[in-house]
Design brief:
This protein has 143 residues and is an alpha/beta fold. It has helices at residues 13-25, 38-51, 73-82, 100-109, 121-138; strands at residues 5-9, 31-35, 62-64, 91-95, 113-116. It has a 5-stranded parallel sheet with strand order 2-1-3-4-5.
Length: 143
């Protein structure tokens, strides 16, 4: 994958710290950008789109929490997947919600993957490893 950063939408400061630490411990040296809600996420993408000449400047993927203030993950997911520039960015829903209807709804809105947040840090390390190996080594994504 050509993009060298990931965008993480997470409103909880402790979760942001744990996620960043897990990526660092797994050897991810590229840029990680954090936003705290859906409004910030869409604004971040819009700023990239305005300054970017190429789609390679978009994140390699977005890790998206569902339960955020201002604009929740469901609304953001729908907007991203309906946008002509953003819709190619893989979106990984990363949330505490285990509800089957919620999972189905996220896939219907265009989520590429749905992951329930692990409880332990060791489990988070494994998930981060799996995400990285899949999205950066296994998946074929159009440029």
């Amino acid at each position: 994958m050509s993009s060298s950063f990931i965008l993480i939408a997470e409103d909880d400061a402790d979760d942001r710290f744990l996620i960043q630490t897990a990526f660092e411990e797994k050897g991810f040296n590229d840029r990680i950008e954090f936003v705290e809600n859906g409004v910030e996420l869409l604004s971040f993408l819009q700023n990239i789109a305005v300054t970017a000449k190429e789609e390679q400047n978009f994140p390699g993927f977005i890790l998206l929490d569902l339960n955020m203030p201002k604009k929740d993950g469901r609304e953001v997911l729908k907007e991203i997947k309906q946008h002509p520039l953003y819709k190619k960015i893989p979106v990984i829903v990363f949330t505490t919600t285990r509800n089957e209807l919620e999972i189905k709804r996220c896939y219907e809105l265009g989520a590429n993957t749905y992951i329930v947040k692990p409880i332990s840090f060791e489990a988070l390390l494994k998930v981060v490893d799996d995400i990285r190996s899949y999205w950066f080594q296994t998946a074929s994504i159009p440029a």
